[in-house]
Design brief:
The protein is of the alpha/beta class. Helix content is 38%, strand content 11%. The longest helix is centred in the middle third of the chain and has 20 residues, at 127-146.
Length: 347
């Protein structure tokens, strides 16, 4: 198995920020230490080579995201620094609301609130570089499978599944899983995306919602009670030609392993019925018991079982890292999942 990792993620570290007024103590839990812990686990697990990604350029990213969003993310920090040299981070103060007539506007503050939909995704001096190379990891992992590998892993940080075509939020700037899937579709493959993060992949859903060539299937906390709140209900099944190609399986707070594995079985049956050529897994470990941003009760052993069930589909698989914030268990959880996935694929 080839894994892809870029050390540049470390220069994007929201953990340095104070907690916002009213925010939880874990508001900025998507920190650089996560990437180092996952890397240590990859090395210790002996899963195969860990490769620095080649630069595939911007076109693969632009196949999913609007040029306006990409231009904004690439230039926002420098634009603000020209206004205020003391700028260290950008967080929106205002948000565009769909009920109003919307124009992007020329002001950096207007654009912050237009492209970003929450306050959990700060932009630092090197955020664009980190997000760009995170996406390159996903593209390279998709390339590996397109070239014949059975499994690849993209150690993506920052994560991506909350980023839409022209929106970012939820710790996410570029949608790595969507970019990987689109790269495979561009090569003629039929792709399914399985999202097993604690939170619904609202960005991924929105990108593929009107399409029939990519299946999106997600297991996640009930949006009546947890982030991202406004997306991820079971009756969201697609639009136009895409009706029937989105499958949401919202789960109750406190979900245990038995309930989760039952839902996973339903999700995998949906994937199998779609008959894809390739599977992209948005992998989150925030379903772990004790994760600071989740409520589920999965164990490290649960992740091995989840991986094994996914592996038994027998599909070429691109694994794209999303969330997971219980740092003490992060490496063990990755090791368990990859072990299960590889063992399951050989069964």
């Amino acid at each position: 198995m080839k894994s892809f990792y870029s050390p540049g993620h470390g220069r994007h570290d929201p953990g340095q920020l104070p907690q916002p007024v009213g925010g939880s103590d874990n508001y900025y839990s998507e920190v650089a230490a996560r990437g180092y812990l996952l890397l240590d686990a990859l090395r210790a697990g002996g899963f195969g080579p860990i490769i620095a990604p080649d630069d595939a350029g911007l076109e693969r990213i632009a196949s999913v995201h609007s040029r306006q969003l990409l231009d904004f993310l690439a230039t926002a920090f420098d634009r603000m620094a020209q206004i205020n040299r003391r700028t260290t981070v950008l967080v929106p103060e205002n948000f565009a609301v769909a009920r109003n007539p919307l124009r992007v506007g020329a002001s950096i503050w207007a654009q912050l609130g237009h492209f970003c939909y929450d306050t959990s995704s700060p932009i630092f001096q090197h955020t664009w570089d980190a997000a760009y190379w995170s996406a390159q990891c996903a593209i390279n992992a998709a390339d590996a499978v397109a070239q014949g590998a059975t499994t690849s892993y993209a150690l993506c940080r920052p994560p991506g599944h909350h980023a839409g075509a022209d929106l970012y939020g939820g710790f996410c700037y570029l949608n790595n899983a969507a970019i990987a899937a689109q790269r495979l579709v561009d090569d003629g493959a039929r792709a399914a995306i399985l999202d097993v993060d604690y939170h619904h992949g609202n960005g991924t859903q929105s990108i593929f919602y009107p399409r029939a060539d990519v299946l999106f299937c997600s297991l996640h906390a009930d949006p009546d009670h947890d982030y991202p709140f406004y997306w991820g209900y079971a009756d969201e099944t697609g639009a136009g030609p895409g009706v029937g190609y989105t499958r949401n399986l919202p789960l109750p707070l406190g979900c245990d392993e038995s309930t989760y594995l039952d839902a996973l079985g339903t999700a995998l049956a949906t994937v199998a019925a779609f008959a894809p050529d390739v599977l992209v897994i948005s992998l989150g470990f925030d379903t772990f018991a004790g994760d600071p941003v989740g409520t589920f009760a999965l164990t490290t052993e649960s992740f091995q079982r989840i991986g094994a069930q996914c592996g038994r589909l027998g599909l070429p698989t691109v694994v794209v890292q999303e969330g997971g914030y219980a740092r003490a268990a992060l490496g063990a959880n990755l090791t368990a999942f990859l072990t299960g996935l590889l063992d399951g694929s050989r069964a």
